[in-house]
Amino acid sequence: MSLPLYTFVAGITGVFLTMILLQVFITLSSKLAIYIESKTTIQEK
Amino acid sequence: MDVILNIWSSMAFDSLYWGNFVMWGIAFLFIYLAIKKDFEPLLLLPIAFGILLVNLPSEIMTPGEGLLWKFYHYGEEWAVIPPLIFLGLGAMTDFGPVIANPKTLLLGAGAQGGVYLTFFGALAAGFTVYEAATIGIIGGADGPTTIFLAAKLAPHMMGVCAVAAYSYMALVPIIQPPIIRVLTTEKERKIRMKSLRKVSKLEKIFFPIITCIIVCLLVPDAAALIGMFCFGNLLKESGVVDRLSNTAQNELMNIAVIFLGISVGATMPAEVFLSPKVIYIFVLGVVAFAGATAIGILLAKVMNLFLKEKINPIIGAAGVSAVPMAARVAHKIGQEADKKNYLLMHAMGPNVAGVIGTAVAAGMFISVLK
């Protein structure tokens, strides 16, 4: 594979992979944060 | 007579040539645009003065000696200043819209398609692969990232590419609307999106930490930019270091912008700037930016094929980094179709995702080409 084509494929793959993983982990971390906060609220009550 | 000749020879008039006068004209034009037209003045004014200084015969850019060379060498060549600007940007950014609707991260990725489209365009125009990557990243409409990448891959093109990137950032309200109107129907522009949920403080604290870990593991060459961006955001969202957050947003950011602007301007002496290649760079830059806008919109339309709750494809145009200008433009076009359609916060999602996306794209270029 030529260098420009390799750069393109690696770049597009890298950008989308990063964003998809970010999407997954941000969704998970949001759920964790909401769970922790709701637990803390219950304990405070 | 000898005295007069000696005084004359000690002056710099003999060193001037027509190119310097052309560059003075460009510097004066930039100063005019910054002061009179409010055209990205924070950067354009220092850049313009840097251009003026470097086109006056002096040793100001002499390697190892010149003052502006030192700013340039330690600030940009060492890639110190762009990450400092990212620190300030992080401290100013609210990631709430992305956290509330993480799907918009994909729009930030999609807009990078314009970067790669132009990468091939620049190769076809005869630029080297390193230069093509630097020209392509203009499509991200992110000045610090453009400078960061240029410093690593094509330092001789830093000034031109930076000016192109900042010019297109300022021209968002002119370049984007016609593209949005051509690529979307009236019905699509009227799509109303559900109000974003409230994002808690803990979610906002988790975001920069998670983002930093994932991006730095996947694209280590983007660590300097993304690391500082996330650190700045953590300073803001933690709520316990207001002094640091304020410094990052204000004093440090302003200092970085001064050094960045004037030294970027100083990379544009007449003999470098006045070449036919510069015209190509500006043309390719606008292709990159328009391509990024178009691909962001098209990706939003593709996503709508699979989504139950449709997104307004206009917000795909905000996937370029120009924050918050691109989001404001998306909001304005949405309101032209439906006065009660409030897209601003929805568009902020892809807009801040675009900052991350462009930094990741730059990191990928560096990791493949360095």
In brief, what are we looking at here?
Chain A is mainly alpha-helical and 45 residues long.
Describe the fold and architecture.
- The complex is a heterodimer of chains A (about 45) and B (about 375).
- Chain A has one domain.
- Chain A contains 1 helix and no strands.
- Chain A has one helix spanning about 5-45.
- Chain B has about 375 residues and is mainly alpha-helical.
- Chain B has a domain at about 90-245 and about 275-370.
- Helix content of chain B is about 70%, strand content about 0%.
- Chain B is built from 21 helices and no strands.
- In chain B, helix 7 (about 105-110) crosses helix 21 and helix 9 runs antiparallel to helix 10.
- Chain B is globular.
- The model of chain B has no long low-confidence stretch (mean pLDDT about 90).
- Classes of the chains: A mainly alpha (about 45), B mainly alpha (about 375).
- At the A-B interface, helix 1 of A face helix 7, helix 8, helix 9, helix 14 and helix 21 of B.
Q: Secondary-structure element order of chain B, as H and E?
A: HHHHHHHHHHHHHHHHHHHHH
Number of helices of chain B: 21
| Spatial extent as radius of gyration of chain A | 19 Å
- The Cα radius of gyration of chain B reads 22 Å
Number of strands of chain A: 0
Oligomeric description of these chains: heterodimer
Structural class of chain B comes to mainly alpha
By DSSP, the count of extended strands of chain B is 0
